[in-house]
Design a protein that fits this description.
The protein has 155 residues and is mostly helical. It has three helices and no strands. Helix 2 packs antiparallel against helix 3.
C-alpha cells in the first residue's frame, strides 16, 4: 500500500496587524494583561499577590543598587577629574585616569536612565492596578445585585 501526501493550497485571508498607533498598541497590551489577570478575580489572588510582592521587592532592590552605583560613579568621576588635572599632559597615567573618568560618567548616566525606567514601570503598574480594580468592581456589581434580589432588566 502506498501513501501519498497531498498538498492542499488554501487561501486564508490574512488578518491585518494592529496599527502602530500608541492607542491601538496600548489597547492590545491592556487586553493581554487583563486576559491573564482577570481569571484571578475570584479567590485566587494568593499566588498572584505573592508574585507581585516578590517582583516589588526585586524592583526596590534594583532601584537602591542603581542609586548607589550612580552616587559612586559621580564620586569616581570627580576624583578622576581632580587627579587628571594634576598629571602631565599626554602621559599614560593621565590617559588612564581620563578613561576612568569617561567610564564613570557613562556609568552614572546609565544608572540614572535605569532609575527613570524603573519609575516609569512603577507608574504603569499603578495605572494597570487601578484599571483592573475598577474592572473587577464593575464585574462584581451585577452579581451583587442578583444576590440582593434585583433583576438585571432594571439596568
Amino acid at each position: 500500500m502506498c501513501f501519498r501526501s497531498f498538498v492542499v493550497n488554501i487561501n486564508v485571508p490574512r488578518v491585518p496587524f494592529p496599527s502602530q498607533s500608541s492607542n491601538s498598541l496600548r489597547n492590545w497590551i491592556l487586553g493581554i494583561i487583563l486576559t491573564i489577570i482577570l481569571p484571578f478575580g475570584t479567590n485566587k489572588w494568593g499566588p498572584l499577590s505573592k508574585l507581585k510582592n516578590e517582583v516589588d521587592t526585586v524592583v526596590e532592590t534594583i532601584e537602591q543598587i542603581t542609586e548607589v552605583v550612580e552616587k559612586v560613579a559621580e564620586v569616581v568621576d570627580k576624583v578622576a577629574e581632580d587627579i587628571a588635572d594634576d598629571l602631565p599632559e599626554g602621559g599614560r597615567f593621565r590617559k588612564a585616569v581620563v578613561l576612568i573618568e569617561n567610564v564613570a560618567e557613562q556609568t552614572a548616566k546609565d544608572a540614572h536612565l535605569l532609575e527613570d525606567i524603573i519609575h516609569k514601570v512603577q507608574g504603569v503598574e499603578e495605572d494597570v492596578e487601578s484599571i483592573v480594580e475598577s474592572l473587577i468592581g464593575e464585574a462584581n456589581k451585577p452579581s451583587k445585585e442578583i444576590k440582593n434580589g434585583k433583576s438585571l432588566s432594571k439596568l
